[in-house]
Every structure is written in structure tokens, then in C-alpha cells.
């Protein structure tokens, strides 16, 4: 297998790296530069027309895209430690929180990034800046609801660190990078962020 | 278990109904009216603050939200017929196609619905109509890429009907309902749509 990767601050490649670090699995890696547009260059889009990172090339040459789908593939081959749940209820709750993080927080942060940030002005033409700005209160509302959940349990889906937490971590760190700060008064979320950032996998 | 459901054209409740019909599973149902706002009424938001449908109430009173997470819960309890794949590769490919349908087509259709449709003008204030309109070519591009995939295989993830197909079906039918038509020249997609619409589950 070969993982086509990209360095920080790209949040999706980092999701997969943290997942692999939690599993204790090493996969050979080819690093591309998003800033140089290497993921949109013909050498790469010949392999993966979507031009997104990360992707996993299997030994038969087949290409898997979508960070979460890559992680589900590895989870099926190497079930322990489980990062997508272990029984019907935990499988559902990890998925539910993963989706909530993606559809509320990650979507809002992505729209702020796409439609308000100077860096993306090169590639998102036109930027709908008023629409983009309208996502700032949505991102804050999403963080607030997640904070409420983290007042009740150490991790999003309960007692076990999961793919939902990994996605929340990479989303919050990317949000901070583009200037969407996590309010310190969300103390459960801030405490969670300190704890998961201290895991060795967070530096992957 | 009790499934809180909503009638067509709501696409997310329909995803779960089709999934259950493919499984041959019946779950007692409580139907709410989205048009009457019953999903936002205090009786329901006391159970599920997000005010979204469908949700599944378990026998211990616990609530599962997110249509796909509900289906993953049922799949873990009743694995056959598998609608999320059976081995590492098919699990990953179903998930990859599910995510592509959601992040490209369903997201574009959702933004058209939220930001351009007269019906949603009551609840999406303000509507960013230029942004909404900018999603029409994105929806078409997503349909075109899906058509290309369906030229190579009978279903999105290969030979087996899956949750990715169910999500594509409910998304396309909802898109048609709001006036975002599937171009007839996308013949692989149109043929796929005829085949999956002829399955008994499609009327669920």
C-alpha cells in the first residue's frame, strides 16, 4: 500500500495519520504539496481524477479516496484498537458524532475557508463572502453543542477515543489556523482539546 | 424500537425506509409532519434537540440520530443482506461512494434547496441566492461523474446494491422534486435510476 499524503495544515491527510498512529500502523507515504498544486497536476489526477488528498493506493493498483473510507478499510483489516466502535450501539454513536462534526462544524469551517479566506480567493471564484461570513455563528453554535456533549462524557461517543474525536481535533486545529477560534469559555471542549492534543498520535 | 419518520419528499427518512425494506425489517413508526413543523415542536425537541428526522428511539429510551448511523446500527444487528459492504474493500468502497454522493451531489442539492427555493425562504433567512444558484453546475458536474462510474458497474460500489445507491436514489428524487433534473443524456445514470426505482424497496 502507498498513502498519498499532504503536510499540515491540511486536515484530511492529518485525520488519516492520527488514525494510523492510534493503530500503531505504518504505511509507506508519498507526500504531495497542496500549495504547489501537486494534487491537481496530471501525474496525480491520472491516478485520482478528483485531485483530492489523501488517497490510498492498494497493492493491485486500486485507489481508495476519502479519508474516512481509507480509515474504515484499515479498521476492517486491523480491528484493534477499534476507532469506529465495537458493537451496534458504539458503531452507530461513533458514526453519528462523526457526521455531526462533519455536517455542522467541519462544513461551516469549510465554507468560511472557501468563501472568506484570501488564500482560497485564487481557486474559489467567485467567493460569496456574505454567505461565507454567515457560517461563523454556525461554527460557534456547533462548537457549543459539542461542548455540551463533552460535559457528559470524556469523548464524543462516550468512554473511548474514536474517529469522531480525531475528526473534531483536526477540524478545530484547522479552524484555529484560519482564524476561527475555539472560545475558551467552552471549558469542556477546551479540556477535551488539551487531553487529545497530548496523545502521541496528535503530532502525526 | 420506535422510528420517528416523515413522509416524502423528505429524503433522509426515505433513506432509512428503503434500507429497512431491503433488509426485510419492520420497525414501529411514529410519523411527524415536517411541513407542520412537528420536528421542531417541544414534544420532539425534548427527545432530540437537533429537531431532525429520522431518529430511532431504542428500548432503553436512548435516541440515535443521523439516517446513516441508524442504518449502521441496524446493519450491525442484522448483517444480511449487507448494505454497507462485507469485506475491507467493499466496506471502504460503499463508504467512499456514500461520501461522494453526500459531499458532492447531496450538498449541492441541499444548498440549492436552502438558498433558492421559495419554500425554504420561511426558515433560511437570509437566503444567499447567488451562492445557491452557483450550486446548479456543481450538482450537474456531480451527476456527470456518477454517470461515468455507472458506465463501469451496475451499482456505485460494484456489483451489489448498497447504502450508497440508496442515498443516490433519494437525492436524485428529491432533486427532481425541487426542479433539479437529471439530464437524460446521462444514460448510465438514467438506466441505473430506472433499475433501482423498480426495486420494491423504492416505494418504501
Which architecture of the largest domain in chain A would the CATH scheme give at its second level?
A: Up-down Bundle
Assembly type of the chains comes to: homodimer
Instruction: Bin the strand percentage of chain A.
Output: 5-15%
Number of extended strands of chain A:
4
Q: How would you characterize the largest beta sheet of chain A?
A: 4 strands, mixed
Strand order of the largest sheet of chain A: 2-1-3-4
The separation of the N and C termini of chain A measures 18 Å
| Helix-residue proportion of chain A | 40-55%
Give the number of domains of chain A: 2
Which CATH class of the largest domain in chain A? Mainly Alpha
Secondary-structure element order of chain A, as H and E? EHEHEEHHHHHH
The chain-level mean pLDDT of chain A equals 97
Structural class of chain A: mainly alpha
- Rg estimate of chain A, integer Å: 17 Å
**Number of continuous helical runs of chain A:** 8
CATH topology of the largest domain in chain A: the name is Glutathione S-transferase Yfyf (Class Pi), Chain A, domain 2
Low-confidence stretches of chain A: none
Largest interface: A-B, 32 and 31 residues
Structural shape of chain A: globular
Amino acid at each position: 500500500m502507498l498513502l498519498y499524503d499532504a503536510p499540515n495544515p491540511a486536515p484530511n491527510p492529518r485525520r488519516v495519520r492520527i488514525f494510523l498512529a492510534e493503530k500503531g500502523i505504518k504505511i509507506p507515504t508519498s507526500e504531495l504539496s497542496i500549495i504547489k498544486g501537486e494534487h491537481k497536476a496530471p501525474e496525480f489526477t491520472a491516478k485520482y481524477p478528483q485531485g483530492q488528498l489523501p488517497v490510498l493506493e492498494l497493492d493491485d493498483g486500486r485507489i481508495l479516496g476519502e479519508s474516512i473510507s481509507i480509515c474504515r478499510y484499515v479498521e476492517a483489516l486491523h480491528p484493534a484498537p477499534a476507532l469506529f466502535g465495537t458493537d451496534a450501539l458504539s458503531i452507530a454513536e461513533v458514526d453519528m458524532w462523526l457526521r455531526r462534526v462533519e455536517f455542522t462544524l467541519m462544513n461551516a469551517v469549510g465554507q468560511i475557508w472557501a468563501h472568506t479566506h484570501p488564500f482560497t480567493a485564487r481557486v474559489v471564484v467567485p467567493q460569496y463572502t456574505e454567505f461565507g461570513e454567515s457560517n461563523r455563528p454556525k461554527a460557534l453554535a456547533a462548537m457549543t453543542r459539542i461542548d455540551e456533549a463533552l460535559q457528559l462524557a470524556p469523548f464524543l461517543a462516550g468512554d473511548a477515543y474514536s474517529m469522531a474525536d480525531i475528526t473534531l481535533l483536526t477540524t478545530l486545529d484547522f479552524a484555529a489556523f484560519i482564524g476561527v477560534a475555539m472560545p475558551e469559555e467552552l471549558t469542556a471542549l477546551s479540556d477535551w482539546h488539551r487531553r487529545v492534543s497530548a496523545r502521541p498520535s496528535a503530532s502525526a
